[in-house]
Design goal:
With about 300 residues, the protein is mostly helical. Helices cover about 55% and strands about 5% of the residues. The chain is built from 13 helices and three strands; from the N terminus they run αααααααβββαααααα. Strands 1-2-3 form a three-stranded antiparallel sheet, with no helix packed on it. α1 packs antiparallel against α2. The two termini are about 50 Å apart.
Amino acid sequence: MEPESLEQLDDYLARLARRGSRHTHAAYRRDLRAFQAYCESANVARWTDVDGARIRAYVGIRHHDDNLSARSLQRGLSAIRGFFDDLLKKRILEANPARGVRPPKSGRRLPRLLDVDAIAGLLDAPADDGLETRDRAMWELFYSSGLRLSELVGLDVADVDFAAGSVFVRKGKGGKARYVPVGAKALEAIGVWLEVRRPRTGAVQPALFLSRQGRRIAPRTVEMRLERWRSKLKLSERVHPHMLRHSFASHMLEASSDLRAVQELLGHATLATTQIYTHVDFQRLAAVYDQAHPRARRDRAGKA
């Protein structure tokens, strides 16, 4: 590229280093240097020679040849847009050619799950003290009712209806409340916890699940306690509260095939959000198929 164009990029990166975070500057510098190298390989002499088609071609190469994720491509485009906006302010460019370019959509990440045996190992583990009694009640309720972490910590004692076998979620996503069924095992675990909880607090504390200090338990504490149980049970992969919700949804859908019911239980606003669990279930079916079908196996040379 022409020396003047290279100086324009160097100047922009130097100013970015002074006003931006070190992490952002490093990422933008890497992205813009990669774009510079591409332009040089394409014999682009000046930034004014770059148009939208050239940027789309660059994004395509980075996506297909370099296998960059949609998120990385979006960051790279943001860096290019920022640089060209700077050239626009200096009247070097008349328009920003990167403004109309969009990265490919990222594929939706499938949720990680625990299988039924792993869930049983977690829920059937004995509680060694009062706090672990509370923990077991939380894990049971997560898996029994598919609650979000924020919904679980927001529950009050009065929200549990033992006779009806349900909990009332007052603070669902988007401010929507709903009743959710609770299984017998979870109700039993909650009942045991309430016996432990009673001497710890008076009637002034409505929260169902309390911290060691007798206050409503914080979401971060729940995450830390679940990690403590993972270590205690020597589970190989990290477990987080949302995995219990995902496992509930997948196992319910697998057993019932009732997508609409699972949507209502999870409190999803649209069916499209719940449909991701059909892909999870398909992955399981595909794995079974690959193992079982005689003409699907790829370990037999020439017979796949």
